[in-house]
Structure formats: C-alpha cells, structure tokens
Protein 1
Amino acid sequence: MSKITKFIVGRLKGCGYAFTGAMLLLKTEPSIQVQAGIAVVMTFLGFYFNITSTEWMLQIFAIGLVMSIEGLNTTIEAVADFIHPDFHNKIGFIKDVAAGAVFIAAVTAVIIGLIIYIPYIF
Ligand SMILES: Nc1ncnc2c1ncn2[C@@H]1O[C@H](COP(=O)(O)OP(=O)(O)OP(=O)(O)O)[C@@H](O)[C@H]1O
C-alpha cells in the first residue's frame, strides 16, 4: 500500500471511530439525548419561523458547541472515574470544572436562541 493510500485509509478509519463514538454518546448519555431532543425542537422552530441563513449558522453552531463540549465532559468524567473510582476532592474539582464548561456553552446557546427567536415571537 502506497504512503498516500495508507494515509487516506488511516483518516477514513479515524472518521469511522469518531462516528462510532458520537453514536455511543447518543445511545448512552442522557444529557446528550436531552440536548439532541432540544436540537430537533430548535430545528423545527427554525423552519417554522423561516429564520435566515445567518441565524441557521448561529443555531447550528450553538447546538454543535453544546453537544461537543458535553461529549468532552463525558470523556473527562469517564477518565476521572477510571483513574480514581473513589471519592477525592481533586476528582470533584475536575468533574465540576468540566461540568462548568458545559454550563457556559449552554448559557451561550440559550442567549443565541433568545436573540434569534424573540424578534420572531414578539
Ligand atoms: N469521585 C468523586 N470524588 C469527588 N467528588 C465527586 C466524585 N464523583 C462525583 N463527584 C461530585 O459529584 C458531581 C457529579 O458527578 P457525576 O460523575 O455523577 O457526574 P454527573 O454530572 O452526574 O454526570 P452524568 O449524569 O453525565 O453521569 C461532580 O461534579 C462532583 O462534584
């Protein structure tokens, strides 16, 4: 196999593993399932109010931001539980900070949603 073919096959395999990981998240993580449900509702609202292309981009970006950071939070929790299953203040700190990152992304997404939809509703 040539170097370039090897490179392409490696990247395609990487995409496959990443897709499997995304499916695992959706199947096993309640928080991501809730966020995916909200994403579906927001998509329906986007079509209902016929939002602009820029608003679609912001909405899709906000959804992607929250869900990807939630995925990282899940990863951090799993690593923390794996390396130290027992109670430890440092593990508590690590998990709280990771959850804080999701909170910041979620607040950002809510603000973006309000800026987009308030003018359509009122
Ligand atoms: N091993 C631990 N040591 C110290 N504090 C912990 C530990 N495990 C959990 N905590 C505390 O409990 C909180 C919740 O942790 P947990 O692992 O249950 O995450 P979660 O937010 O419920 O996530 P999920 O619902 O995705 O499992 C943490 O943010 C942390 O404050």
Protein 2
Amino acid sequence: MKPVIHHTHAGQPALVAAGLTRAFGGLVAVDHVDITVSAASVHAVIGTNGAGKSTLINLLTGEFPPTSGSIVFEGRDVTAWSQHRRSRAGMGRSYQRNTIFPEFDVLENCRLAAQSRWQRAWNWITPAARCRLARERAATVIERVGLGAVAQRRAAELSHGQKRQLEIAMCLATAPRVLLLDEPLAGMGAEETERMLAVLDDLRRDHAILLVEHDMDAVFRIADRITVMVNGRVIASGTPDAIRRDPAVREAYLGHEAAEAA
Ligand SMILES: Nc1ncnc2c1ncn2[C@@H]1O[C@H](COP(=O)(O)OP(=O)(O)OP(=O)(O)O)[C@@H](O)[C@H]1O
C-alpha cells in the first residue's frame, strides 16, 4: 500500500466547520458556528463563561456528534467519524483532564502514545523495531516541547507547566497535523506561560492549531486569528488587531457603556 502523503501549506484551510450546532435539550450551546483553521497558524477561540468553546472543541474532536452542521478536515468530511478515526487521520487533541501515567517517566509516556497511534501501521515490522521507532518518535517530540532534560523523570514529579508540556508531547507523538488545545495555559505562572507560548510558536510552523484559552494577553500575543463566541454564536472573527477594535467584542467584554466611552 502506498503511504498517504499530505501536502498542507500555510494559509490553506486545514479544518473547516460550517453551520456547526449542538443543542443540549432546549439549550443551544453551539449555534451555527462557522470556523476555518488554516495550516501553519494559531486560531484562538475566546468567549465569556459558558459561551460554548469547550463544546465546540468536543464537536471538532468527535467527543459527541453535532445536532447539525459539518466538519471537513483536509478536504474530507469527518462529521460522522469517530474520535479514534479522526485522531488516526491527524486530528490531535490535548485534554484538560489528565491522560498522563504518573508512575511512568516522560519518555515512556510519549512512547506509549506513539505506539498507540502507530500500532496498526507498524504491524508488518518486528516488535523490537516497533519499540525502537516509538522510542525515536518519543525522543523527538520530547525535545520539541523542551522536556529533553527531564525525559527520564517520573511524570508525577513534573511541575504543573511541565505536565502540560508533556500532554502536548503525547499528542505530538501521534503525528497530528491539526492540534486542538483546550486551555493549555490554565493554572500556569508567568514563566511557564512563556515557555508554553514558545512551544506553540514553534509548533505553528507545521501545525494548524485551534486554541481555546482564557489568558487574553497570551491569546492576543500568539494568535494569527481570533474567533469570539457569546452564547454559542460567533460574534466576530479576525486578526487580533481587528478583534481588539471590534465594537461588538468590546461590548461583550467591557459592557455597553464602557464600549461607547472607549
Ligand atoms: N453535556 C452537557 N449537557 C448539558 N449542557 C451542557 C453540556 N456541556 C455543556 N453544556 C452547556 O453548554 C453551554 C456551553 O458550555 P461550554 O462548556 O461549551 O462553554 P465554555 O465556553 O467552554 O465555558 P467555560 O469558559 O466556562 O469553560 C453551557 O451553558 C453549559 O452549561
């Protein structure tokens, strides 16, 4: 079988959601959302509490199905695909919840993540070679997220920031081309935030990154585009500069009077 080679270039749409809607009973958590995440870019989704950001990520990863709308990944309609199938196709997700094995070291955690992704593809080679490939892949992603110095350390002994870096590394071990990141900066101090932003800036070179994040300073520094959600709907989408100036965004965040005074 010939390997599938993906050519995705900067600016090309990697992930496109159209009219994406999800209702929970009478509550429409995500309401006709259109969003395009381009290759080699960081696209942040921001919004007030309960705006529907996590639900949007869950729909994109296939955690649950949309009520209506479609999701296209690199030209293929994946709306009906399972989470697992999307992940194998190259849609990577880093979870807010912990997926790390605390008793295993950093390298082992990443090796297991790599192995889970490549098990089937590597079936034709010997277990020893499979193990070596997974170790190599793990070592590469560990360096990439800046955890090289702690590769042999038990995950339980890592700082909070390092654990979040490890989660990104485990996601990278599965060789995704789109990264869906749910609050990767949550609970981080200033130094940890800087480190993670440097990692994201580097990953942007060859990944389409969708980032849900509450840290506004970080979002406005790192994002190429920002989509703003309020009550399940997109109220604005554009460059950080355009979003900063957008009257509807200012009103949603600052309140009507403050927006008029600004
Ligand atoms: N499984 C569910 N069942 C019922 N309602 C849900 C479910 N998941 C989310 N909701 C509701 O959908 C709305 C959007 O929630 P969501 O978690 O997506 O918002 P969010 O923008 O991620 O919020 P936050 O910034 O506080 O994390 C909320 O009113 C929430 O209570």
